User: Fold these one by one.
Assistant:
Number 1:
Amino acid sequence: MESFKRLPTHIGIIPDGNRRWAVKNGLLKKDGYEHGIQPGFELYEMMLAYGIKEATFYGFTKDNNKRAKDQRDAFTQSCVDAVRLLSEKDANLLVIGNTESPAFPLELKKFANKRVHFGRGLININFLVNYDWEWDLNNLIENRILKSSEIPRVDLIIRWGGCRRLSGFLPAQSVYADFYIIDDYWPDFKKTHFLDALRWYQNCDVTLGG
């Protein structure tokens, strides 16, 4: 294993490009989501190996529900399948999202807005499902606490798919996050993607404004 002088404590993962990957490979757009599950677990294993303490994965957002029904059904089912597989691993899961919306999958309500422990609990995994940044921040205004208050500040965000935008990813926790972009689509995940991000992070000037 490659060694690093410092590692981010909390990594944000934006796994973009599933639909574009599907079209590129002669599939329907909806088919890209199921091919995004295995890369997540390859990355999970790498984070365990490198001792990463916490990771937040973007599942889907309120705005993603504007997509065609077959795509909505596909990315929702992929989120359910990912949690089912994670339940057989060693992780502490926190699912954050608006459970009052009909778009939130019923199968995940038992994991919603509370930390659930699987196996030896070697890493905290946060999963944003039907997440809405306005819903999150409005609760801060109304009740003086974020809906996502259990999720700590993010050190490094890695986004696949080439887009250079945050897309509403944990706006409060991401205020000082460093942002690394990978042009390859998420289903084309390679171990070198993660290692390149960690190498890049070595030279980031983390002062938090100081």
Note: The two ends are 33 Å apart (CA to CA).
Number 2:
Amino acid sequence: MSTSHVLLGLLAAGNRHGYELKRAHDARLPRAKPLAFGQVYATLGRLARDGLVVATGQEREAGPDRTAYQLTGQGREALDRWLGTVEPPAPYVTSTLFAKVVVALLVADVSAARSYLVAQGRAHTDRLRELTAVKTASSATLDDVVSADYAIAHLDADLRWLRTTLDRVADWHREVHS
């Protein structure tokens, strides 16, 4: 994820200070890792240095000064370029799940590898149920639904891959240990 581009996108809706940007990020991307305040302010500093945002003033609300930021024309151009660029599919298979399954198949016997795959599949199924409950709740926002749909699609793909791999465990084990 490009934190700087997400912040530019949030600023496209109007001026905001760092605290508001962090809250908006966490609300709009509810299944993403929450941003740390330090990350928000460091990113804003880089965006300001690069001329993509400018400080528009400070306010104080029973706490420290809060600097509001505004998207510049150059910032809007950078945001538009980023949005207009197709995201290439990941060139490499990199995930802890993939690495763990491969290592389990390499070092475990067939029964242990199958047990791991079944347990992992159960965890994925449980998470699918949780996300389905989130998106079907009467209090679900569009942000909740869109992020849950994204997570569900990825979990579903992982689950299908786990099931296929489970079907291939004996063949893999024979190939590796022969």
Note: The radius of gyration is 22 Å.
Number 3:
Amino acid sequence: MSQRGFSVRALGEIAIRCIDLDAMVAFYRDVIGLEPINDPENSDIVFFRIAEGFAGHTQVLALFRHDIEGAGNTQAGDEPPATGPGSSLHHLALSLPWDEQDAVIAWYETLNREYHVERFPWIGWRGIFTKDPDGNTVELVAKEP
């Protein structure tokens, strides 16, 4: 423990402002396989369970309609947000076991989805990259055995 008196232990939530909330919900639910933890049909903010998390706070992906204000006094925007190289979000990486990466590739090929694979030998990771409907890069990453 440092002089701060605290130490971050896990990522609690990632929140994305969405251009097309319905398409984004369908992608993260049906393509990536995340489980909604609230009703996507009746909400302007949809939460997906990523993992158990830390100290009772489930790790989540939150999708907000871009014109909805959020926690932390995060203001809404009238204009849709920039994505891709115009966004401050470089990419989103979600972890999975190494032995499931071939299934990701097969699934993307079944869906006729564009993807590419990158290896990061300096740390021993391999990522499979695609784009969500709003144009954000999404990586499914695993540690090589």
Note: The chain is about 15% helix and 35% strand.
Number 4:
Amino acid sequence: MNAALFNQGCLGVVLAGGKSSRMGSNKALLMRNKTAVNGKENMLSFSKNLLKNIGINSIVVSGNIDGADVNSENFVTDQFAELGPMGGIYSVIKKYQPKSLLILPVDLPLMTKETLAQLKIKGELAQKACFFSDHFLPLYLPNNAFVEQFFTTHFLQYLQGNKGALSEKNNPKKNGPSIRSMFAQVPHQVLAVKSPQCLFNTNTPQEWQQAQQRFSV
């Protein structure tokens, strides 16, 4: 896939690189009760369709997903393992250099296209990173000079200074810099969410069951 095709507008990014350890199975492959065109819809397809439905034509998936046909998708493997969402975001920017990104985690089964569209519009108007109150994800992120400086200084310096810590098991520093740390250097705007239930994320079977009760048809 030609990376130049992705740097003209907003790139949709589905974050699906987590280990899903608390869920016990890959969250991206959880099947929704809602029927899609080709049968039941999993969370990966649901997340991609949300991005498509607000007019984003270029979409990539951050992370490797067992059981998915990686040849038919634009998958981006993390350049640095075990760094959480920031590792995925860095790898996507490094590979495609998009003008901006709309980043959606794969574990938001109650997200709506209206909420995502609000985030994208506000971000484009403000030309700043935008996220909802008390939730750093989903995130609209312009790939501007502030973001570039953060990744080329703070992020890479963190990696070089913590090589040993990142290679050790059960080390609290292993997950790397947080999204919060990025906003100490990157201009941003915090938005009020009209439908708070949209931000309900599912990390456990119990939470997934609660979500299913809300979107079942």
Note: Helices lie at 43-52, 84-96, 113-126, 145-161, 163-167, 179-182, 205-215.
